[in-house]
Structures
1.
Amino acid sequence: MSGSGSELIEAVGSTLRAARTWLRGHKPECVAGFAVLVTALVVLAFVGAFLDDRAIAANRAFTAATVLDGSNFSRTLVRFTLPDGQAVVPERGVMYPRGLEPGSTIIVEYSTEKPSLVRVAGRSALNRLPVVIGVMAGVWVVFGSWAWWLRRRRTERAAAAGAAADQPVGAARA
């Protein structure tokens, strides 16, 4: 077992070299694959928001909530009181918080079965549809055009290499 460490390092190095070689030959596919991945994540986020909206709509209750300090880009915290007097501050914050200011009072909708599932009243995933479409369009404009350019460049290089291989050995190249 004295050589097992160096054999492992050599095997990992060989695998990494093979992966690098494969990636070099498949850049357009990798870029397009990244665009597909981002698109799938955006669609899944939208579907998740839509399902949360359905869960709220199935057992909906309305109440006044206070927007709390400590909110940030990723979540806006609110506090509201349930009919039994229990105060709720959803850990994930309120859904669709655009334009909310700390200290303001807003009307929220929440699920009576899961009070931590809360959204600003009158807002839904459909309000975010233009943003979702815009993000996906932006991803495909940037990454789709980049993948197209990489593929075109690869095709041109292959054509140039094929033309060079067709020339006789002693012929002058332009």
2.
Amino acid sequence: MKADFASMTSLCLLRLSAIGDVCHAVAMVQAIQKQYPQLKITWVIGKVEYQLLKHLPGVEFVIFDKSQGWRSYTTLRKALSGQEFDVLLHMQVALRATIASLMISAKVRIGFDKARAKEGQWLVTNHAVEALATPHVLEGFMGFAKAIGVEDLTPNWHIPVPAADTQFANELIGKDEKVLVICPAASKAERNWLPERYAAVADYAVSKGYRVILCGGPSQLEVDLAASINHFASQSIENKVGQTTLTQLLAVLNRASIVIAPDTGPAHMAVTQGTPVIGLYAHSNPGRTGPYTSLDNVVSVYDEVINEQKNAPIKWGSRAKGADLMMRIQVKDVIEKLSILDSEILGR
């Protein structure tokens, strides 16, 4: 298969969302660029996700704004009019992505294997990646690079940040400071840990010499959760929720000593910066969606929950259901992970 792609000159990547997934996709893109440095790469991406990756070298972005409804498809068609790519990597299983792919002309259209090519994806592709039994999402994405002959699939990330954003983070966090950044909110409230438990961990961290900073987006859910954490905390916690752009947040995560987060984009952003992450998981399998380089640091009740809910053999991507599952994660278990990272990784 490698020989078939050696002469390709253009590639289109279709991955619209979400933040964590596009972080995984960056590692794949940069593995492709390493092997094919002259390849022209066009990435069809969501509007929000573009704000994080817009400075990525060697990639031309085309924004797909789903808020435009059906007009988003005609806008995409116009943006790509007259272009035929050698290869399309169709990397999103969603009906809107399947429809969007019809606006993209490509000779070879690579999608997921049969088991994963849902939402009609199999109808609009003519090649499939290798099937994997128990892949992490990042490994599943790397399958696309492998399908076009990439040999070195070791994940590495280089996501440029504007100098002003780096300066913002440097001014916020001193060079030798111990800083715990908590990004407490996921996109769905049920995946969030309890505010009083976040506060208890924050209090412990402060007692061990950490500055604790809350970070996140400007949604009301995130603002309210941060306020609740501050209410329950007895120590001083700095609240920066809603006060950073995505690239500023990336720079802050780079400066952090440790990050705590549930199943949410900033956990994967921290991975791209080489910062250790304590992931909190109940609804999804951390082996599949956890912070890739910090899987040993995850605090998870997923296995016990999913085994209670499923009698039949459990599929790798199965999600547990329930509004109160995160209550099963105990403060002591998170503090234990924090202590281990503090002593072993940080050497303190």
3.
Amino acid sequence: MAPRLPRPHRDDVRIAVAGLLGGLGLWAAGLHSRAAHDPVVRLDAGWAVLVPLAVTAGCEVLRRVRPRTALLLGTLALVADLLTRGNLATLVMYTDLVYAAVLYGSPGSARRIPWITGLITVVATVGPVVAWHRPEGLLIGVFTGLVTYTPAATGWIVRNHRDAADAERLRAEQTALLAEIDRTQAVTAERARMARELHDMVANHLSAIAIHSTAALSLDDPVTSRDALGVIRENSVEGLAEMRRLIGILRDQGEDRLPAAAPTLDGLEALLATARANGLDVTLDATPGERLPAPVELAAYRIVQESLTNALKHAAPGRVTVALARTDGSLSVRIASPYGDRAGPRAPGSGAGLVGMRERTGLLGGTFEAGPEDSRAGRTWTVRAALPFTRGAPVTGGEEA
């Protein structure tokens, strides 16, 4: 089945009707382009000018949907018009067909038509001068150029401007899309960062509060209840301080305010003291001897903090060891806690702890692993992380101090 011809544009139909009515008006008034005795006139009948006029008007309907076909038929109609007394409307509509063929046609047609019309103009200029040896022959070339080359060149200029505008619009849309993608990624990364911070800061204290409140409620012992309430109060105060620090990060910082300080490895002893107060038997094997990059210290602190929280909720009775050591270009972190069968966690959790630790390590370009291991002390749950001092630096193995 042959493809259906696209519907003509309404403006093209209006142009065709206007051109046809204008040509009929000129014909009715007896206004023609050439006199009856002109040597080129072969059809002197008055009705003869109407056939090229009607064909050219029909081509105007196709100027946008079939520009090349319209130009070919229009050229034949113009040649036929030259054999009659002529109609100015036919000539004007033909110039529009040349313009439309360049503007709406294929890129190949848009490149070739100006060259072809330019060549025709040159031939029409030089030929009569050489043949007649009279300067009046130049007028033929000027007339040919006005009818063919000028509308073709105009269409080429307009098409270039249109294509440039389309390219700029597409570039602007792509830039806006990339900006939106960057904004979305930045928002997602910031939300993930704040989620890690919130989880790591609050989970430790809330887990201790949940465990000791359960003990206080289940044991009818005033001393035990008093100790549990003391631990609960201490964790509540520390958790509130951590929340205030996080709120300080989220708020806009004024020029006269210092940003809230992020935790560093200097706070490990206080972190371990809190863990001991919560009931864990924790030992620290070693700490780095000198200051490390802030992102590395923050990641190491949070990994130790989350590992102690998990040990508080899941570990079997026994000693928890925390070991840190400097290796070639990285900080090695290892936390081992007794691994045993437990009916369930001592406090509910979100399950996002390991995900957060892995994300923190990945952001620094390091390696992370966690799982049960067999050691001389028995079966343990071990968390290992290697945090490079420079993002993307190679991570080398090393023994913990």
4.
Amino acid sequence: MQRVPWVVGISGASGTPYAKATLNALLDAGLPVDLVVSRAARLTILDETGIAFRDAHWAEDLALWLGRSGAGDVRYWPAGDLAAGPSSGSYPVRGMLVVPASTAACAGIAMGLSKDLLQRAADVNLKERRPVVVVPRETPVSRSHLEHLLRLHDAGAVVLPASPGFYAGTKTVDQLVDFVAGKILDAVGVPHTLFQRWAGELGSAR
């Protein structure tokens, strides 16, 4: 069977647990992943987890971060490699998830700057009319950020802020993170069991 992955781009915004939960859910669903980690995201991963994500040792660093025995079906592309597979529209992928999405990443994608592989891959998937989900976490937001998010929406992306819901009997931080990851997967039609869905009955999740 041909390997057709989801591209996951991790930018430098705070919120790497959202990326971790999304990656684990995609791998648990048996879906391959092409991973792009921006230079700023490496600093954020180090700050939020203590793990140094290194190009030369990406597989072991990724396994440590995700809490898995190995890197799974992940292909890693350095953010500076603009000749990488995901930089071309002829490279087969299912679509792209940018999680978390910094204001700089949102602006770069919205304006088509393609200053690194993350931005280029997102631009490619938009022009190819593939699913693109952008997960901004910044708050509050400026007018320029709102304008960039509107441009992304108009270009066909799903703008999915990292806004966890509390109606599913949430008791832990991990459940709040999983709620956002589950909404990301819902947006692209990937089945999961990351949160309890609303069933129309008050208090049912408790």
